[in-house]
Structures are given as structure tokens and as C-alpha cells.
Amino acid sequence: MEKIIRDNIFQQAIKWIYEASSMIREKMNDPLHIETKSNPNDLVTEIDQATEKFFVNKIRSTYPNHFILGEEGFGDSLDNLTGTVWIIDPIDGTTNFVHQKSNFAISIGIYYNGVGEIGLIYDVKRDVLYHAKKGEGAYKNKVKLTPLKRDLTLEKSIIGMNHFWLCHNRLVDEKVMEKFVRTVRGTRSYGSAALEFAYIAEGILDAYLTLNLAPWDIAAGIVIVNEVGGVTTTIDGESVHMLKQSPILTCNPAIQEIIIKNYITKGRKVT
Ligand code: 2AM
Ligand code: CA
Ligand code: CA
Ligand code: CA
């Protein structure tokens, strides 16, 4: 993507993120209309939907030839990533949004012919924007993030993962994962995939493993993590398919191989 075009899209996207976040802040303390999607704990509110609609309307009127992939379904249904595609999660961490009014983010990844060009993750409550353009580094607000340290060991790592890895699950033997959590320094679960990617980029979390994520959960995060030398694959170490859901590992490259080889592969169930 041409630099001048990318810079224009980047500036525009940031302006819309700030506009959307003021609307979210204005409405978030009113009574929320909450519905469930795939299961009783899979929530969506009218603010998730209104925020996605806001971005879709702005993008369609400003860039009519761009495509949109959004969690709440107001974008396009795409079977390929040709052209410029905005991959949008209007509120990532809806459960946190509903229950805590914090620890949620707007996540926007902008891809050109399948390549991640721009990543934007905005922590609405803390007013922190993680952003990156491919090849130009990653930033937390105005501060440039430093490359991830290469001398990290698993024993000194903090891992983002939730309890489902230690419950009986369809992917990996929980006994192997028990060994894993006993080996690492600590685990954390923040409940927003986008923010967990941002924390990997910031170097305050060293790996994030998740059982099933969709493109809008990871599109922005992949671009940001990549700019500090982090790596994102499926949990089997394969490249991520940007139009499918998959179990994901994003991490400091120093611990990628040991996680995949010594834990995931050993415990992997045939699916
Ligand atoms: P969401 O809040 O945008 O739905 C926490 O569970 C993380 O997993 C969040 O980033 C959440 O994104 C994502 N997630 C993906 N699929 C989910 C589902 N079916 N139910 C709840 N969270 C889901
Ligand atoms: Ca959701
Ligand atoms: Ca999400
Ligand atoms: Ca969402």
C-alpha cells in the first residue's frame, strides 16, 4: 500500500476511534440492552452494534471501494482479502464492558491484499491507543515500544491464558497444560484478546494462548505485535488464516518453540 494513502487511512481511522469512544463513554453508564449470541455467556449490547455501524457508515461514505469485516455483521461477507479490508471488533471484551466498564477495547486491523498494514487497539477506559503501521514500529500513545527481549526463558515468563486450558477441552490434554502453568512464572487472564495482544507488544505479557479466536479479535494485534518482533501463529505453529477462527498463540519468539514443542504438541488431541 502506498505510504501517502496508508497515512491518510491511519489518521482517519484514529479520528473515528476517538469519536466512537466518546459515544461509548457517554452511553456506557446508562442501562445496557444485553443479548446473548452463541451461548448464555456470549454477550452483545446495543453499544457493540452502534459502534460497528458507526465505523461501517464512515468507511462506506469515505472509502466506497474498501471492504469491511466486522464481528457484529454490519460489514461485508468476504471470501477473500483482496483490496483494502477493515477488520473491526467494535468492542473487544464485551463481558468486561458489561460487568466492569473497563478492560475493553476497540480493535481495527487494516489489511491490503491480505497483508496487515495498520493495527489500532484503543483501551477506551484508560485512554491508551496502541498503534502500528507495518515497517514503522509500534506505539503506546506517543511512546515507541521497544523490541521484545531475546534472552527470555519460559521460567521467567508471564502467560496470558484462561482456565479453559486446565479444564477438559477438545484441543490439548489438561495434564500437559498443568505442567505448563507450573513451569511458567505466572498466568493472567484479561478477557480482551486485543488488549492481551497489546500487552505482548508492550512486553508486559510474554505469550498469549487462546482456544478459539476470530479474525476481528486478532487482526490489529498481529500488526502491532509484529512490529516489536513478536510472532503470531496457530497453537500448532502454522500461519494464521485471516478469514477463519482458530486457536492462537502470540508471543515473544524466544519462547515460541518451547511452548509448541514441549507442551502443545505433546498434549495435542487429534481433532
Ligand atoms: P468479544 O468480547 O469481542 O466477544 C474473552 O473471552 C475474549 O475472547 C474476548 O476478546 C472476546 O471477544 C473473545 N471471544 C471470542 N469468541 C467468544 C465467545 N464466543 N464468547 C465470549 N468471548 C469470545
Ligand atoms: Ca463478541
Ligand atoms: Ca473480540
Ligand atoms: Ca466484540
Helix content: 25-40%
Tell me, rounded to a whole number, the average pLDDT.
97
Architecture per CATH nomenclature, i.e. the level-2 architecture of the largest domain: 2-Layer Sandwich
> Biggest β-sheet, characterized?
7 strands, mixed
Query: What is the alpha-carbon Rg in Å?
Result: 18 Å
| Ligands | adenosine-2'-monophosphate, calcium ion
Number of domains: 2
- Give the termini separation: 38 Å
- CATH homologous superfamily title of the largest domain: Fructose-1,6-Bisphosphatase, subunit A, domain 1
How many individual β-strands? Answer: 14
Protein structure class: alpha+beta
Q: Report the principal-axis shape.
A: globular
Short description:
The protein has helices spanning 3-27, 46-62, 94-99, 174-183, 193-202, 215-227, 256-267, and strands at residues 34-36, 43-45, 67-70, 84-92, 105-112, 115-123, 128-133, 138-140, 143-144, 158-160, 186-188, 207-213, 231-234, 246-251. With 271 residues, the chain is an alpha+beta fold.
